[in-house]
Amino acid sequence: MLKIVKRMMSVVLIGVLAAAMAGCGGSSTEEKKDTSKEKAQKVIIGTQEMPNDEGIAKAKDYFSKEMGIKVEIKQFDSGKDVVTALASNSIDFGLLGSCPASLAISQGTEVKCIWIHEVLGSIESLALQKNEGMKSVKDLKGKTIATPFASTAHFSLLHTLEKAGLSESDVKLLDMQPSEIYAAWKNKQIDAAYVWEPTLSELENSQIISTSSDMADAGYMTSNMELVSTKFAKENPDLTTAYIKAVAKAVDLYQKDEDSAVEIIAEALKLKKQDAKGQMSGSIWLSAKEQLDKKYFGTTDKKGSLVQNLYDTAVFLKNQGSITEVPNKSVFEKAVDPSYIESALK
């Protein structure tokens, strides 16, 4: 009888242990599923108000449609703010100019450059106050010029001055964000400004004397691009590729149905259609296939000129005191990543 009771107790004990182990196993599996699910619950995209492909993708909700999950859009005033957000891991993706992008890479922020939103042209320009006795870049000697420091506009402005035989010390440079430039311009606290759209068009009584297209022709190309957290991209390659598909779809819409694309941007930025069209035509929009040209990303096997462009920009940033040293070119080679564009095209 005692043996039977012991045997029964053993059976019960084994059953309890098995149930407990199954319960633990189930809890562990469930926990893993929940963690995985949590990682894919939301994507945070840092953006700026610009008349480009991301503007269309936001308005048409392409990101949510391509990614299949919740997407949060965070608005920023400048590329420097985007760099800070990427460095603190408060966003997954960030739209910024090639200067702040180079700054982020140079400072060791773990990011990948995955897309060029536009190659800048007249969308970013040097504007003078009319009726102030200024007609050319040379007339800016001794004048006050505002621009966001460490930006593509800053980069182009200094080369514009250099081309006209002026140095930084010949003018008074002020570091201002677009909203600050608008206010200072209105109050005539500045004589000129190098800034981008839509702020550029809001500067009343202005005269454009040089554009980023002029600088690109002179060998100083600037662009707006997309960075993604290296950690996010590594853990979520499909979502990173989905981002590319969303902006590529926006470029495709612009190239095939310009009127619809202009209408979307006009509504999103509260612009007149003709103004939206003018701003959008002020830059070059590249399709996914065009991005892989050797002038830009190149391919995974052979990176393109974007690597050198970002490296040269880092040299500019060092000369400005924005960084203490220029990283080895291999750092930029590693950061420029065409693989997600290649995946999107498959």
Nutshell version of this structure?
The chain has 346 residues and is of the alpha/beta class. 51% of the residues lie in helices and 18% in strands.
What features would you describe in this structure?
With 346 residues, the protein is α/β, with parallel strands linked by helices. It has two domains: 41-119 and 222-344, D-Maltodextrin-Binding Protein, domain 2; 124-217, D-Maltodextrin-Binding Protein, domain 2, CATH 3.40.190. The chain has 17 helices and eleven strands. The protein has helices at 2-39, 53-59, 62-67, 79-87, 98-106, 152-163, 178-186, 199-202, 212-217, 230-235, 237-256, 258-269, 273-280, 288-291, 306-319, 329-335, 339-344, and strands at 42-47, 70-75, 93-97, 111-120, 124-129, 144-147, 172-175, 192-196, 206-211, 223-229, 283-284. Strands 2-1-3-10-4-11 form a six-stranded mixed beta sheet, with helices on both faces. Strands 7-6-8-5-9 form a five-stranded mixed beta sheet, with helices on both faces. Helix 2 (53-59) packs across helix 11. The longest helix has 38 residues, at 2-39. It is globular. The termini are far apart. Mean pLDDT is 89; it is low at 1-38.
